[in-house]
Amino acid sequence: MLKPVPAPPDLLSRLFEGAGFTISVFFQTISSFGSLWRRRVEVVIHTQAFGIGGIPVTVLVGIFTGMVVTFQTGLALYSIGQAAQVGVLVPLAMCREMGPVMTCIILAGLLGSRIAAEIGTMRVSEEIDALEVMSINPIPYLVMPRFLAMCIVCPLLTAYADFIGIGAGMLVAKSQLGVSFQAYLNNAKEHLEFKDFYSGLLKALVFGSVTASVACAQGLRTEKGAEGVGLATMNTVVISSVLILVLDYVLGWFCNVFLGVGA
Amino acid sequence: MVAPGPLIDLVDVHKTLGTKHILQGMTLQVNRGETLVIIGRSGIGKTVTLKHMVGLLRPDRGKVLIEGRDISSYAQEDLDRVRMKFGFVWQNGALLNSMSVGANVALPLREHENLPDDEIRRIVREKLAIVDLHDVEDMMPGILSGGMKKRVSLARAIVRSPEFILYDEPTAGLDPIMSNAINELIVNMKTTLGVTSVVVTHDMPSAFRIADRIAMLRKGRIIKIGTPAEFLETDDPVIKQFVYGEEEGPDEATEV
Ligand SMILES: Nc1ncnc2c1ncn2[C@@H]1O[C@H](COP(=O)(O)OP(=O)(O)OP(=O)(O)O)[C@@H](O)[C@H]1O
Ligand SMILES: [Mg+2]
Predict the structure, then answer these.
(1) Is residue B142 included in any domain, yes or no?
(2) What is the ipTM of this complex?
(3) pLDDT, position B174
């Protein structure tokens, strides 16, 4: 009957507890998709807000990632007289790796922190307790619409960044390396496959759902007022960025083995 | 079907939050149809007690029975069903800051009842009028005063005509006239609708006005429970000190 007073949790057990909670939030969210139709208005509102909010930074990510990849690989290729091959490398790199990873890391900072701060503030001001007392489950009411919005917005903005990056690369190839638009595009068309593109979007979908789960879990677990909200926000950005980098490798392997990307 | 016995029954509840042992064997019964007032010093665990009654906190030890059933082991759906019967007036309002006052009050109706929009609007206007708020539906909670927030929280708590209402300091921060109106509201809910209320308050005149019984919380337990008359007549120095607000007595102003 008597439960022992829990010992002050050490870092490792806190980490496991947090991971367990995040995973449980993820599965609860998935199983709350049944109430999708009821929450359609919230889903649309968040998708709009996240999408529009993410456009400016996505454009910047696309432009500069495309430029830098083109410039650096171009220099190497130029020295062996193969500058036109940037038309192969840049679109592949953008679609498979740079587009999804760079965009989603930035969106984890932008939208993940926003979600964590929103839900964390609701937690510390007892709004979530109030919802629970009104028999309103915060998972379908608060988490699911934001989760779904992230799953829609991350791939869409990644696709946008891919195109912008390829375009920016084309301009750099022309102005810095003397590669004509024609040569660049021909190379791209010949070597870029559709699966290079959609495997990147698949990654973005996973990154978006991971960021949303981490952000919502951090928000729901927030304690101790404003300081706690700050901490939840910071944790969200750090944890989801690291997870994106780790998962990127795992997913890259998965896409290669199971979808034949790059095979 | 009305189950016999107390409506809310806390049996030897212990709760530790952080490093503080806040409830230390709290036993308290709330009978059907009564208004029970809980008094006690700030930070003593009154809000924590209310949170146990709706299952927001689960006891480390002991039981919380609602209508004879232990809710501390309930699954989510069962808990939700029990909570449907409760209204909760939050100490700080706990309004959803992202939606208007009208949407806040309408929320329980929209979530749990299938009513046409104009009917919902009518009920919301009616409940806000009960707490003397008019034409505030489109305002955002952020711009309301503390007392207004509390009244909106009250309107939200009663919007679905619950059987039990828990009030966390409903009159704190209100002017005397408004406080009286809230007292009358609490009494009316009992006499006209048979609502059972638990009211946490520091406001002694209000406590004596509304209470059928008063319970005093100190050091994690109920040290006395009885009618207002019994509280006025008591010789216990601790209770006298609290009821009359004397600085001299067994409790120091600095200790909690
Ligand atoms: N989540 C929590 N974690 C740690 N300590 C908590 C938590 N919630 C409450 N406490 C502590 O429990 C004690 C009792 O809190 P509670 O809110 O019940 O006081 P109260 O009697 O309602 O006081 P007041 O009259 O000022 O509202 C306080 O000391 C508070 O610091
Ligand atoms: Mg309190």
Answers:
(1) yes
(2) 0.88
(3) 81
Residues A174-209 have pLDDT tens digits of 998 888 899 889 988 888 888 889 999 999 999 999
Q: Residue A235 pLDDT more than 60?
A: yes
Q: Which residues of B touch A1 (CB under 8 A)?
A: 61
What is the structure's pLDDT at B253? 63
Residue B67 lies in a domain: no
Which ligand approaches the C-alpha of residue B18 most closely? 1
Q: Is B54 inside any structural domain?
A: no
User: Is A132 in the B-facing interface, judged by CB distances under 8 Å?
Assistant: yes
Domain that holds residue B99: 32-47+77-243
> Which pLDDT does position A136 carry in this prediction?
92
Classify residue B116: in a domain, yes or no: yes
CATH at residue B81: 3.40.50.300
Confidence label for A262 from pLDDT (cuts 50, 70 and 90) = confident
What does the alpha-carbon distance between residue A196 and residue A95 come to, in Å, rounded to a whole number? 6
User: Nearest CB to A129: which of B81, B94, B108?
Assistant: B94
Q: Which of B24, B96, B152 to mutate to test the interface with A (most CBs of A within 10 A)?
A: B96
Residue B96 CA to ligand 1 centre (angstroms): 21
